[in-house]
Automatic annotation (TrEMBL), chain A:
Cofactor requirements of the protein: [3Fe-4S] cluster; [2Fe-2S] cluster
One Pfam family, short name: Fer2_3
This protein's name: Succinate dehydrogenase/fumarate reductase iron-sulfur subunit
Domain 4Fe-4S ferredoxin-type: 150-180
UniProtKB/TrEMBL annotation, chain B:
SUPFAM superfamilies named in the record: FAD/NAD(P)-binding domain (SSF51905), Succinate dehydrogenase/fumarate reductase flavoprotein C-terminal domain (SSF46977), Succinate dehydrogenase/fumarate reductase flavoprotein, catalytic domain (SSF56425)
Occurrences of domain FAD-dependent oxidoreductase 2 FAD-binding (ranges): 36-441
Every Fumarate reductase/succinate dehydrogenase flavoprotein-like C-terminal domain range: 503-637
Gene Ontology terms describing biological process: anaerobic respiration
Species the sequence originates in: Leptospira langatensis
Active site (record annotation): 330
Membrane topology note: Peripheral membrane protein
Lineage of origin: Bacteria, Pseudomonadati, Spirochaetota, Spirochaetia, Leptospirales
Keywords: Cell membrane, Electron transport, FAD, Flavoprotein, Membrane, Oxidoreductase, Transport
GO terms of molecular function: electron transfer activity; flavin adenine dinucleotide binding; succinate dehydrogenase (quinone) activity
Protein name per its UniProtKB record: succinate dehydrogenase
EC number: 1.3.5.1
Catalyses which reaction(s): a quinone + succinate = fumarate + a quinol
Length: 243, 638
C-alpha cells in the first residue's frame, strides 16, 4: 500500500519545527510501524536527505523507548499496543498519517520525534524505591504476600515509563506514571516503611518537573500501551492524603 | 601469555566462602577515594552500580538509552533460576550447578558456575526485598515453574515480564543511589574507547549521543556490562541498539575475546515475514511448558492445523527426547526445528516454521489458566502475526538470541587487563557453549549484586587509592584523537550505500555461513567475504549529517564498523573449534543420529583471542578447563 506521511521535523531543541510531507510507497501490512519508517529513512539517506530521528530499541513492546503521536494518538490507534508493536495492517492504502513527538513541557524535543523523558527518572530518584542495601535480605518466603495483592502490585509494576500518559493528557499530567509506582510499592509489605515519604517526595518531584494535574478525563488510561488502570490514581490520591 | 583463571584452591563448595574470607578489603573511609566506571545499566551494570555505590565507592555509569531503565535485560520474559528448592522436588545448589555445566556442554568453568548456583538463592531474597512482584501461590509464597534443560521447578517469574521486573528492581536501587549523589548517571552516551595506562584499565572515552561531544573519564577500575553481540547477525532478538563496541574496543586495547563462536539460537521466535524485517521477536521459552511442538508427518502439508489429525502430527521433540520432550535445551530444540524444516516439513509461508500448540493445555487447564500464565505473550503474537494463538497454534522458528562468548575473565571477573572487569553477558565465563533458560538473568544479577562487589575490592585494595590518573595523560589524548579521526572519516566517505545495507549484508552472510550449522567451507567463505564487505564499507558508506548533533546513522556506523571486524573473529573461532558443542554445531562433527559430537581430548578449553592489529590474524590462547567434580559425559536429554 502507498501512504502519505506528515512528519514533525525539528533539527534540535532550539530551532523551530514544522510538518514535512513524505511518501511511503509499497508498504507491506506485515511491517511494523517502525519498519515502515526504516524503509522511508533508507530512501531519504540514499537521496542525501537527513533521516527522521525516532526513538526505539527492543521493538518488542517492553523497553518503553518508542514514542510517536500517530494521528494525534500516543502509540497510534490500537489499545494496549506500543508504536513498535503496531503493524501496518492497521492502516489502509492511501491513508495520510501524522507523526509527531510527545508534546509536554516536561518532555522537551531533542530532534524530530525524539524527546527528553529524563523527568521520569528524576521522579523515581526522589523516592520510587525500597531503601534496601544489597545482601542480608531475609529469605524470600519469610514474607508471604497474598496472591491478590501481589497480582495487583504486578499490574501496577507493568508500567514501561514510555510517557504516553503524559503525551495524551491535556495537562501533561504524570499522575498515571507516578500512581503506578506508588501503588506497586504501597500494595506490598516491603513498601510500607517509606510509604508516606515516598508519595510526598514523588508528588513534589512530579510538580517540580512541570507535569500538570489530573482532571479525571482518563486519556492516560486510554493511551497506555500496558493497560495501567486509572484506579491507581485513586490509590495515589489516597496515599497522598494519608501522608 | 598464560591465562591464569585464579580459581581458589580447596573443595568446590568452599571455594567462594573461603575466598571471601581471605580477600583484601578496602577501609570504608577509603572507598570514596576510588572511582569506578560502569558501562551499561542492564541487570549486571545496574545492580553493580547500585551495589558499588552502596558500599561507598564513587560510581560513574553510562548507558546509550535515554534512561537506565531501558537496558535490554528488560525484554527477558520467562524467569530467573535459583536453587531454593521451595518445591521440595529435589533441587539443590549442586543440581543447579550440574544442570548448568551439562547444559553448557561442559565448556564452562566449574568454580564460576558453582558460585553462580550458590548465590542464586540470595538473588531472589534481594529482589523480593526490593519489591519485585514475583508470581505467588494462594498461600502467599513464591510460585515456581520449570524451564528448558531442567527437571525441577526452580524458575521464579513475574508473569511474562520477569526481565522487566528484575531490571526495574535494579533500576530502583540505582535510582536511589543516583538520588543520593553516589552514582553519577550519564544516559544517551556510549563508550567508544578504553584507556589503558601501564597495563591497567584506567578510563574510557565517551561520546555524548545528543551533542556528539567527546569526553574523557578516568577511574581506578572499569566495569563493562555492555551485553552481548548477537546483532552481528543483523536479525536477532536483541534490541536494535545492542552492540559489540565496548567489548570489541577493549579487545583492541588488549583484552582477550573468548569463545565468540558460542552464539545461542533460541527456538521459540516468531518466523521472519519479509525483507523489511528489522528484528525478530522472541516468544518466551516458558511457552514450552504447556505448548507442544509439532509438524505434519507429510511433507508440504498445507492443511489448516486443526484439520490435521493427531495420527498425522509429528511431535518430534517428544519422540526424540522422551524424558525432556518439549523442555530439552535450546540448542537441541533449535536444531531439531531446522532439521524438520530443511527436510520439507515446515509450516507457514516459506516453510520456515513449526507449530507450538496449546490446544491440549487449554483443554486440560482451561483458557483462563493459560491466559494467566502467558496472556501478554499471546497478545503480542496476535499483534505481530494477525493470528489468535488461543484458536490456532503459534508458528515459531529459531533466531539468534544470546551470546555465550565474551571477554575472557578470571574467577574475579577481571579480564587479562588488570582493572578491567567484565560482567553479565559481556563476559564468557558461566554458560559454556550454551545457556539454559532463565540463567541469563541469574548471571547478570549474581555478578552485579554478589560477585563483583567483593572481587573488585580485592583489586582496588591491592592497587591502592590516590592512583587515579589525570585525564591529561597522553593515553587519554591519544584515544580521544583516534575516536575523532574515526568519526571524521565515517562522515567524509559520502558513498552510495546506507549503514543498514552493510549491516544486513554482513548479517545474512553470518546467518547462512556461521548460523545454526557451520562447516569448514562455509566458514572459509565467510572469512573471504567479510574483509570484502568491510573494504567496501570504508569506501562506499553514506553517513549523513554531522558529528555535533543527534545522528543515529553515525551511531550505527561506528557499531557496524566494529561488527564488520568482529564477525571475522567469530568465524575464525568457529573454524578453529573443530568439534560440535552447545550452540556451536559443525556439520563435520556429528553423531550418526545427528547429535553434536564433542571432542574433549582436543577442545576441552576456552579459546581466548588476542588482537594483533587490523588485517593480522589474532593470536589464540587456551584456558584448559578442569573438571574435578563432574565427569565429562555425552550430553543426553533422551
Amino acid at each position: 500500500m502507498d501512504l502519505k506521511l506528515k512528519v514533525w521535523r525539528q533539527k534540535n531543541s532550539k530551532e523551530k519545527g514544522k510538518i514535512v510531507n513524505y511518501d511511503a510507497k509499497g508498504v507491506s501490512p506485515d511491517m511494523s510501524f517502525l519498519e515502515m519508517l526504516d524503509v522511508v529513512n533508507e530512501e531519504l539517506i540514499v537521496k542525501g536527505d537527513d533521516p527522521i530521528a525516532f526513538e526505539h530499541d527492543c521493538r518488542e513492546g517492553i523497553c518503553g523507548s518508542c514514542n510517536i503521536m500517530i494521528n494525534g494518538e500516543a502509540h497510534g490507534p490500537l489499545p494496549g499496543v506500543t508504536t513498535c508493536q503496531l503493524h501496518m495492517r492497521s492502516f489502509k492504502d492511501g491513508d495520510t498519517i501524522y507523526l509527531e513527538p510527545w508534546r509536554a513541557k516536561a518532555f522537551p524535543v531533542i530532534k524530530d520525534l525524539v524527546v527528553d523523558r529524563s523527568a521520569f527518572d528524576r521522579v523515581i530518584q526522589s523516592g520510587g524505591f525500597v531503601s534496601i542495601n544489597t545482601g542480608g535480605a531475609p529469605d524470600a518466603n519469610a514474607l508471604p504476600i497474598p496472591k491478590k495483592d501481589a497480582d495487583v502490585a504486578m499490574d501496577a509494576a507493568t508500567c514501561i515509563g514510555c510517557g504516553a500518559c503524559v503525551a495524551s493528557c491535556k495537562n501533561a499530567s504524570a499522575m498515571l506514571f507516578v500512581s503506578a509506582k506508588v501503588s506497586h510499592l504501597a500494595l506490598l509489605p516491603q513498601g510500607q516503611v517509606e510509604k508516606k515519604e515516598r508519595v510526598k517526595n514523588m508528588v513534589n518531584a512530579m510538580d517540580k518537573e512541570g507535569f500538570g494535574n489530573c482532571t479525571n478525563q482518563y486519556e492516560c488510561e486510554a493511551a497506555c500501551p500496558k493497560d495501567i488502570k486509572r484506579d491507581f490514581i485513586r490509590v495515589l490520591n489516597k496515599e497522598f492524603i494519608l501522608s | 601469555m598464560s591465562l591464569d583463571s585464579k580459581i581458589p584452591s580447596g573443595p568446590l563448595e568452599k571455594k567462594w566462602d573461603d575466598y571471601k574470607s581471605h580477600i583484601k578489603l578496602v577501609n570504608p573511609a577509603n572507598k570514596r577515594k576510588y572511582t569506578i566506571i560502569v558501562i551499561g545499566t542492564g541487570l549486571a551494570g545496574g545492580s553493580a552500580s547500585a551495589t558499588l555505590a552502596e558500599l561507598g565507592y564513587n560510581v560513574k555509569t553510562f548507558c546509550f538509552q535515554d534512561s537506565p531503565r531501558r537496558a535490554h535485560s528488560i525484554a527477558a520474559q520467562g524467569g530467573i533460576n535459583a536453587a531454593k528448592n521451595y518445591q521440595n522436588d529435589g533441587d539443590s545448589v549442586y543440581r543447579l550447578f550440574y544442570d548448568t555445566i551439562k547444559g553448557g556442554d561442559f565448556r564452562a568453568r566449574e568454580a564460576n558456575v558453582y558460585r553462580l548456583a550458590q548465590v542464586s538463592a540470595n538473588i531472589i531474597d534481594q529482589c523480593v526485598a526490593q519489591g519485585v512482584p514475583f508470581a505467588r501461590e494462594y498461600g502467599g509464597h513464591l510460585d515456581n515453574r520449570s524451564f528448558g534443560g531442567a527437571q525441577v521447578s526452580r524458575t521464579f517469574y513475574a508473569k511474562g515480564q520477569t526481565g522487566q521486573q528484575l531490571l526495574l528492581g535494579a533500576y530502583s536501587s540505582l535510582s536511589r543511589q543516583i538520588g543520593l549523589g553516589n552514582v553519577k548517571m550519564y544516559p544517551r552516551t556510549e563508550m567508544v574507547d578504553l584507556v589503558v595506562i601501564d597495563g591497567h584499565a584506567k578510563g574510557v572515552i565517551i561520546r555524548d549521543l545528543v551533542t556528539g561531544k567527546i569526553s574523557v573519564h578516568a577511574g581506578d577500575a572499569v566495569v563493562l556490562a555492555s551485553g552481548g553481540y548477537g546483532n552481528v547477525f543483523y536479525l536477532s532478538t536483541n534490541a536494535k541498539g545492542s552492540n559489540v563496541t565496548a567489548t570489541f574496543r577493549a579487545y583492541k586495547k588488549g583484552a582477550f575475546f573468548a569463545n565468540p563462536c558460542y552464539t545461542q539460537i533460541h527456538p521459540t521466535c516468531i518466523p521472519v515475514s519479509g525483507d523489511h524485517q528489522s528484528k525478530l521477536t522472541l516468544m518466551s521459552e516458558s511457552l514450552r511448558n504447556d505448548g507442544r511442538i509439532w509438524v505434519p508427518k507429510k511433507q508440504g502439508d498445507t492443511r489448516n492445523p486443526a484439520d490435521i489429525p493427531e495420527s498425522e502430527r509429528d511431535y518430534y521433540l517428544e519422540r526424540k527426547y522422551p524424558s525432556y520432550g518439549n523442555l530439552c535445551p535450546r540448542d537441541i530444540a533449535s536444531r531439531s526445528a531446522k532439521e524438520v524444516c530443511d527436510a520439507g516439513f515446515g509450516v507457514g509461508p516459506g516453510g520456515q516454521g513449526v507449530y507450538l500448540d496449546f490446544s491440549s493445555a487449554i483443554q486440560r487447564l482451561g483458557e483462563h489458566t493459560i491466559a494467566e500464565r502467558y496472556g501478554n505473550l499471546f497478545q503480542m503474537y496476535e499483534q505481530i502475526t494477525g493470528e489468535n494463538p488461543y484458536k490456532v497454534p503459534m508458528r515459531i522458528y529459531p533466531a539468534v538470541h544470546y551470546t555465550m562468548g565474551g571477554l575472557w575473565v578470571d574467577y574475579n571477573l577481571m579480564s587479562n587487563l588488570p582493572g578491567l572487569f567484565v560482567i553479565g553477558e559481556a563476559n564468557f565465563s558461566d554458560h559454556g557453549a550454551n545457556r539454559l533458560g532463565a540463567s541469563a538473568l541469574m548471571q547478570g544479577l549474581a555478578d552485579g549484586y554478589f560477585v563483583l562487589p567483593y572481587t573488585i575490592g580485592n583489586y582496588l585494595a591491592e592497587v591502592g587509592f590516590g592512583k587515579t590518573p589525570s585525564v591529561d595523560h597522553a593515553e587519554f589524548k591519544k584515544a580521544e584523537t583516534d575516536v575523532n579521526e574515526q568519526t571524521n572519516k565515517l562522515l567524509s566517505i559520502k558513498g552510495k550505500r546506507t549503514v543498514d545495507s552493510f549491516h544486513k549484508e554482513l548479517g545474512k552472510l553470518m546467518w547462512n555461513n556461521c548460523g545454526m550449522a557451520r562447516d569448514e567451507k562455509s566458514l572459509k567463505e565467510a572469512l573471504t567475504k567479510i574483509p570484502q564487505i568491510r573494504e567496501e564499507f570504508w569506501k562506499n558508506v553514506n553517513v549523513p549529517g554531522s558529528g555535533t548533533e543527534l545522528n543515529q546513522s553515525l551511531e550505527k556506523a561506528g557499531r557496524v564498523a566494529d561488527f564488520l571486524e568482529f564477525g571475522e573473529l567469530l568465524c575464525l573461532d568457529a573454524l578453529t573449534r573443530e568439534e560440535s558443542c552447545g550452540g556451536h554445531f559443525r556439520t563435520e562433527h556429528q553423531m550418526e543420529d545427528g547429535e553434536a559430537k564433542r571432542d574433549d581430548n582436543k577442545f576441552c578449553h576456552a579459546t581466548a583471542w588476542e588482537w594483533k592489529g587490523s588485517g593480522t590474524k589474532p593470536v589464540e590462547h587456551r584456558e584448559h578447563l578442569e573438571f574435578e567434580n563432574i565427569k565429562l559425559a555425552t550430553r543426553s536429554y533422551k
